[in-house]
């Protein structure tokens, strides 16, 4: 039974906590840490065996904690990864690996220096069955070479504190990772374009929607619409245009209702619910890998987190310049191949 410590028990941390306690085989949560003690104590109250440890560094160092799940604020991921790496503990870190490419590189270098792959990054869509099917089809070559892709990432609403930076490092980063994984290529150019902004964008430093235009090393172009206050639901779209046809992510697996001259289909505003199956699968894969003292090859690594961070840095640059920015990626070390 793998004993896990969780840092950060907000909405996503609580969902992961409940998942580990109730759904995932061969794992249990030994302790949690959060800046909001009351929130953490409420979450663990039904589970008397779980301890609250106020200091996240103390949680990572706790002898009972064999593996660490990092779901705290994005700006803390780097520090907690570095501490867990120092102690050679297994890590599940939510994206982003760090708020900057330089920070992500530090984590990669620390993992390389330790000589063992310990980090699994929470790019959950790699475990989503529909994305899996899309990747299989595109890689099979049955539709010919992929030429371009249209993606849309829509959140019903976004917290007021979130701005253009988070729209890229917290939201567009999912599109960046999944599309690079889907077509097996990395991005060399990035540009961000601001259309008209919705009145629902509450933060004056948020342009909403925005278009992130990415070009892969082989010349494929991926356009991603990032619209985080679309109001109507959580909606993720992806259409890959290949030489001999197109492949599209199914819109939803909900029952369609026809009634009173109307055809409708329910949607959800909750991304955790939308991708629930992928989260379950990524956590089971992580626990199985840790228990076998190895890493899950199907999951995103620290290197993937670094590639995504280099790409988001270029997007942030483009938000300011308005131009096309290069994505300065270096070769993947053999350690991550
Ligand atoms: C959030 O951090 C996520 O990971 C969600 O999947 C995404 O839809 C949302 O925009 C992010 O803020």
Task: Report what the structure shows.
With 337 residues, this protein is an alpha/beta fold. The chain has 2 domains: 2-125 and 277-300, NAD(P)-binding Rossmann-like Domain (Rossmann fold, 3-Layer(aba) Sandwich), CATH 3.40.50; 129-269 and 307-336, Dihydrodipicolinate Reductase, domain 2. 36% of the residues lie in helices and 23% in strands. The protein contains 10 helices and 15 strands. The protein has helices at 11-22, 37-44, 56-61, 77-86, 101-114, 129-140, 164-183, 271-274, 276-291, 302-321; strands at 2-7, 27-33, 51-52, 67-70, 90-93, 119-121, 146-154, 187-193, 210-216, 221-227, 235-242, 245-248, 256-259, 262-265, 325-326. It has a 7-stranded mixed beta sheet with strand order 12-11-7-10-9-8-15, with helices on one face. Helix 5 (101-114) packs antiparallel against helix 10. The two termini are 29 Å apart. The structure holds (2R,3S,4s,5R,6S)-2,3,4,5,6-pentahydroxycyclohexanone. (2R,3S,4s,5R,6S)-2,3,4,5,6-pentahydroxycyclohexanone (ISE) binds at residues 155, 170-171, 174, 228, 271.
């Amino acid at each position: 039974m793998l004993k896990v410590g969780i840092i950060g028990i907000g909405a996503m941390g609580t969902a992961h906590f409940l998942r580990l306690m109730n759904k995932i085989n061969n794992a249990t949560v030994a302790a949690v840490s959060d800046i909001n003690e009351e929130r953490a104590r409420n979450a663990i109250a039904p589970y008397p065996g779980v301890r609250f440890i106020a200091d996240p560094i103390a949680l990572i160092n706790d002898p009972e904690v064999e593996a660490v799940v990092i779901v705290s604020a994005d700006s803390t991921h780097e520090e907690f990864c570095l501490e867990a790496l120092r102690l050679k503990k297994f890590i599940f870190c939510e994206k982003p690996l760090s708020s900057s490419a330089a920070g992500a590189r530090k984590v990669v270098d620390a993992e390389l220096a330790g000589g063992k792959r310990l980090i699994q990054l929470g790019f959950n869509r790699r475990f989503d069955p529909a994305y899996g099917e899309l990747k299989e089809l595109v890689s099979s070559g049955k539709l010919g070479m992929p030429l371009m892709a249209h993606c849309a990432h829509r959140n019903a609403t976004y917290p007021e504190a979130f701005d253009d930076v988070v729209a890229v490092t917290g939201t567009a980063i999912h599109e960046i990772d999944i599309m690079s994984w889907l077509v097996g290529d990395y991005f060399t150019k990035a540009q961000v374009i601001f259309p008209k902004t919705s009145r629902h964008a509450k933060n004056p430093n948020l342009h909403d929607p925005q278009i992130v235009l990415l070009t892969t090393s082989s010349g494929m172009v991926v356009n991603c619409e990032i619209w985080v206050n679309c109001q109507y639901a959580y909606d993720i779209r992806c259409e890959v245009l290949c030489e001999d046809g197109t492949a599209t992510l199914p819109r939803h697996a909900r029952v369609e209702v026809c009634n009173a001259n109307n055809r409708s289909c329910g949607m959800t505003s909750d991304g955790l619910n939308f991708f629930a199956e992928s989260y379950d699968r990524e956590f089971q894969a992580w626990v199985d890998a840790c228990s076998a003292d190895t890493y899950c090859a199907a999951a995103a690594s620290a290197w993937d987190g670094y590639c995504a961070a280099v790409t988001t840095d270029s997007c942030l640059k483009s938000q300011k310049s308005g131009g096309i920015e290069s994505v300065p990626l270096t070769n993947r070390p053999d350690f991550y191949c």
